[in-house]
Amino acid sequence: MSLGITIVSHVPEIAAGLPKLLKQVAADVPLTYAGGTDDGDIGTSMEKINQAFDDNSADEILAFYDLGSAKMNLEMAQEMSEKTIHLYDTALIESAYTAASLLQAGVSLKDVEEQLKPLKVK
Amino acid sequence: MALTVDNLIEWINNFSQKVNEHKDYLSELDTPIGDGDHGNNMARGVNAVQESLTNKKPAELTDAFKQVAMALISKVGGASGPLYGTAFLEMAKKSKDTTDLGELFTAANEGVKKRGGAKVGDKTMVDVFEPLAEKLTQGLLEQSEIDEAVEGTKDLVAKKGRASYLGERSVGHLDPGAMSSGYLFSALIETEGIL
Fold first, then answer.
1. pTM of the entire structure?
2. Closest Cα of chain B to A94: distance in Å?
3. ipTM value of the model?
């Protein structure tokens, strides 16, 4: 499968916790996450996000995040990554869950994105 | 009257000193309309910048701006990391063609606007960067202009960042990012021979 998911949150535990929920419906979808700053504090880290992109076995990644500044670090990591990264301004948990279950079912990116549209909140 | 690696380092050291001195004040400004960590985040960032510049003195202006950017991007944590980081990355790029601070800050401001999606009037650092980049271009940067730009954010309704969740309730508070940006410009005025 060449489509994967990366979760980015300000809180290390949120970033680590959400994949547990996603794995229930998407055992085979490559899933990585980046949470907190380099020191493990509340915030996001471009380097950690970069690492999460690199560690993901997929070469095309759907990225979901919690709050605005995570998006900025995501965008910077996106510019530096050689992979194709898609960013979604959607409700984090609901949209990551939607994407994970659809990807597991082999749904195309176009159709996944169609289902993500109503979940746009930012 | 020109930007050099040496006075750039002095400028950044001055900025760093101000951020550390006013760390609690910056966090205090961030408490009613944000998450209360702007002072700590910025202090962590500028301290990393100083460490980077001390450990490896840059040979060229472009390298110096890049080192500043990378330290801020990796250490600040909040929104200010990518925003200040982008500002310095844009200056790094522009410094290949010019050492004119007006042009450098104009490029920085455009980068910040693009990264954060903010424009003038949104109660962000852009409300300081944009008018003061203009003043720098005209050679008219004064402390009074800096104060005015920072103060001006008080009556604005926040449209971007954490403060935007408060909407109208953000009125009456200075924007912390505008304040720290003000320090960056004040540090410039205090750096001899750079303007």
1. 0.89
2. 21
3. 0.76
